[in-house]
Amino acid sequence: EKFCALPTYIQSWGLTLFFMGTATIIAFCFFHALKNPTANIALTYILAVFLVARFTDGYSFGLFSSFVGVVCVNFLFTYPYFALDFTMAGYPITFVAMFSISSITSAITSNMKTQARVLAEREKMLMEAEKEKMRANLLRAISHDLRTTLTAISGSACNLLANYKKMDDALREQTFTDIYDDSMWLINLVENLLAVTRIEGGQVNL
Q1: Are the CB atoms for 55 and 15 separated by under 8 Å?
Q2: What is the torsional sign of CA 73, 77, 83, 87?
Q3: In sequence order, which residues have a C-beta less than 8 Å from that of residue 92 and are 6 or more positions away?
Q4: How far apart are CA 30 and CA 47, in angstroms?
Q5: How high is the mean pLDDT of the chain?
Q6: What burial class does residue 48 get, using C-beta atoms within 10 Å of its C-beta: 0-12 exposed, 13-18 middle, 19+ buried?
Q7: Secondary structure element (H or E) that encloses residue 184, with its range
Q8: What's the average model confidence in pLDDT over 111-137?
Q9: What pLDDT score does 123 carry?
Q10: DSSP state, 202?
Q11: Confidence of residue 4 (pLDDT cuts 50, 70, 90)
């Protein structure tokens, strides 16, 4: 299971780095193009966190992105540049608020994905249950038809064995005809069942 989950884990990390890197590039564009870009930069990283939470598995990638976004805003786009400083007036509240919003967004998005996955699995289980119910009904119907026809064949054969000499030619011929007709009906039923099996197996294109 660990080896099967490894590609998904690597893909999640790749998406995380991609979204955060793209957000950083856009933030640099805002930083150089706008006079007061702080709010736009913060929203850009929050959007990146939302995308990370949407397209990756688990809470950890979203929380990691929230932390990286807060650090990038402080380190790259807050004076003094290229230095971490949470002591300036107003900045701690801003960064705490940004981290909280990003974390809550990530948690809500991940929870929605989990609920959607659970609903999809539940719907699949209901479909399987309905399919099994249909199969059970079909088997009951087929069993009833088979039993009825086989009973008729065996009854006619038993009648021939017990009363063959007592029957006239017309009655014996009618009894043989009934056995033949019932046998052909069984053959057609089996052929239909085989055809349905081939269709379900994808061997026949409708």
Answers
A1: yes
A2: negative
A3: 86
A4: 15
A5: 82
A6: buried
A7: helix 169-200
A8: 87
A9: 92
A10: T
A11: very low
Q: For residue 183, what are its two tokens?
A: 């046998």
Quote the pLDDT of residue 173. Answer: 92
Query: Which tokens belong to 178?
Result: 């009934």
Query: With b meaning 16 or more CB within 10 Å and e meaning fewer, what string describes 59-97?
Result: bebbbbbbebbbebbbeebbeeeeeeeeeeeebeebbee
- Which token pair is 30? 């805002």
The dihedral through the CA atoms of 87, 93, 94, 99 has a sign that is positive
DSSP letter at 37 equals -
Which residue is listed with tokens 């009618």? Answer: 174
What is the SS3 assignment for 56-100? CCCCHHHHHHHHHHHHHHHHHHCCCCCCCCCCCCCHHHHHHHHHH
Report whether 108 contacts 100 (CB < 8 A).
no
pTM score, two decimals?
0.53
Residues recorded for the chain: 206
Q: Are 23 and 48 in contact (CB under 8 A)?
A: yes
Nearest-Å Rg of the Cα atoms of the chain is 36
| Nearest CA among 3, 102, 97, 7 for reference residue 51 | 102
CA distance 98 to 47: 11
